[in-house]
Structure formats: C-alpha cells, structure tokens
Design goal:
With 255 residues, the chain is mostly helical. It has a domain of 170 residues. A two-stranded antiparallel ribbon has the order 1-2. Strand 1 and strand 2 form a beta hairpin.
C-alpha cells in the first residue's frame, strides 16, 4: 500500500497494511521476557544501595525510561525536519508516533523520579533544574500532540506540529546537561561520568543494563505499533474524504 503526497518531488511513502506483524510479535515476546528478567534482578537479586537503600531499585526503570523519552523526542525532531523539507507523510507519522511514545516515557520518568525523591530528598517534588526542565519537555510534547490533533487539513496541522517538534531536541539537551550547568539536587550521571558522580557496579550495573534492554524493547514495540495505527487511521480518513467528495460530485451531476 502506498500514498502519493503532493510534494513537489513526487515523494512516495510505503506504509503498513496491518497494525501488527511477525516482527512485532517477536518483539512483544522479547519485551515481556526482558521485563520479567528485570523484575527478578531489580527487585530480588540486586542488593540495596549503601546510601539510597531500596530506593535504588527505582532507577532501573527511571534511567532507561528517560533515555527512551529522549530517543522518542529525537525521532520527532528528525521526522519534523524531514517532513518540512520533503513533505514525507511517512516521516511525519514517525514523528507523531515518536512524540506519543516519548510522552508516555516522560511521564514514567517524572513519576518514578518523584517516587525516588520522596525517600531520598524528603519530598516528591522540588523546582530543581532537572525536574523543571523535564516538566517543560512534557509540556512541549503535549503541545505537539495537541497541535497535531487540531481539526484542520492534514497538511496544516502536520506543518504546525512539525514546527513544535523542532523544539524537542534542544529541550532534551537542556534536560541532559542541567546537572552540569546548574546546581541541582539531582545526582550526577552514574554511567559515563567524569569520576565525580557515584559509581554503579556488580549486580546493580547488570540490573540497570537489563532495564535498558527491557525498556528499549517496549519502546520499539510501542513505536512500531503506534506508527502502524496512525498510518492506517490516515488511510481511513483519506478514503472517507475521497468518498465524500465523490458523493458530492455525484449529487451535482444528478441535480
């Protein structure tokens, strides 16, 4: 199935025929298995941290979820750039799917961060540089999705949403560097740090990498399915519009 856009260079975007495939089925099974392994190591086998105690287990979901949110934002910004450049519907829907999945993982990041902050800082929320910039990222994502769902012509709402999508990666950079640029309660990077932050090793490190694998597989599964659903929804909307135009033309001929 293909859709021909009215782009000046006659871009043709191939699209899916169904919401699932054999590949997504395999991905789903791998995601479930990896989540079970994460639960085993994160909740049972991995020891408590000397400073954070049992709260460290939250980080096995919190850190990978934040990374997944960043990747989703990156896809949205890249997809927005390509759409504005070539009017590719395929890339616009990649951007849309990336934004929806990134929104989910940004919410998970904020919620798990608040759950970690309560026993560590004594409060669920502080107007910390990392927390505030992450909240701003969530607002940008929600703004993108709101503009994308405006009751307007596809080209109009897609273009407006793409402009908002351009702002996501710059905000991700601010979130990522906030602990370096400003004084913050949030701990320094644990992985790939400069030696000044806390270190993680042993079963705790293995549990964290298991979290990256599990969350990564879930992210990929959700992204593919959301793209397929969005593509098929646009197909239905386009066919409905064409049917309505044909009906009106037929009415004009008969009258």
């Amino acid at each position: 199935m293909t859709i021909e856009t009215d782009a000046p260079d006659d871009v043709v975007d191939p699209g899916p025929l169904t919401t699932g495939s054999r590949t997504t089925a395999v991905l789903g099974v791998l995601a479930l298995v990896s989540l079970a392994v994460l639960a085993l190591f994160g909740l049972v086998l991995s020891p408590a941290d000397a400073n954070q105690g049992e709260a460290v287990r939250i980080l096995y979901v919190h850190v990978p979820s934040a990374t997944a949110a960043y990747i989703g934002c990156f896809l949205t910004t890249v997809g927005s750039i390509v759409y504005l450049w070539r009017r590719s519907r395929w890339w616009e829907l990649v951007a849309f799917a990336g934004a929806e999945v990134a929104t989910l993982f940004t919410v998970i990041t904020l919620v798990t961060g608040m759950l970690w902050g309560r026993p560590t800082w004594g409060v669920f929320w502080v107007w910390d540089a990392r927390l505030t910039s992450t909240a701003m990222l969530l607002l940008l994502l929600l703004g993108y999705l709101a503009v994308r769902r405006l009751s307007a012509d596809y080209e109009v709402r897609a273009t407006r949403a793409a402009i908002v999508g351009l702002l996501l990666v710059p905000n991700v950079i601010i979130v990522r560097q906030s602990v370096q640029w400003w004084r913050t309660l949030h701990q320094k990077p644990t992985l790939f740090s400069d030696g000044l932050g806390s270190r993680i090793e042993g079963l705790m490190l293995f549990s964290l990498f298991t979290g990256f694998i599990a969350i990564g597989l879930v992210f990929l599964w959700l992204l593919i399915h959301r793209f397929r659903v969005a593509w098929l929804a646009e197909q239905v909307a386009e066919e409905g519009l064409e049917a309505a135009i044909a009906e009106r033309r037929a009415e004009g001929v008969t009258s």
